[in-house]
Amino acid sequence: MAGDGPPTAGEAESPGVDYFEHAADIGVIGRGATVEEAFVHAAEATFAVMADLAAIRPLSRFRVRFEEDDAELALARWLNRLLAEARSRRLALGKFAVRRKGNRWEGEAWGEPWHPGLDRGVEVKGATLTMLSVRANGGRWDARCVVDV
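Given the sequence above, the corresponding structure tokens read:
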């Protein structure tokens, strides 16, 4: 097969197999002076895809705790835990905090019940391992991944 990506319609190995271009996902980046600050900004970037963060009132708060040695996997876990809690509690989230003690991560999120005035019409389903990276960069931290929309 020719090309670097999946085969095109004319290159499929079987008449029942075909491919299409998929560019619907979004890469999010959080930057900060610490890894924790970068995680907070990555959460803001993720939830800003779905809602106007400035319009969200901090009426409800919840905590998330997890253990993870690898900072990159911790980023995906952090974002996915926030998304799952927001979905189950039917909250729009707009404010975040996280602390790291060794391999223990403790975070908080604040928000309010979803209402039409907040909705941007795009739902983030989850953080993926695609392009997952948590790195120090010139004295600052970058935390990035692709979120599935």
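The longest strand covers residues 91-101. Try to locate this feature in the token string yourself.
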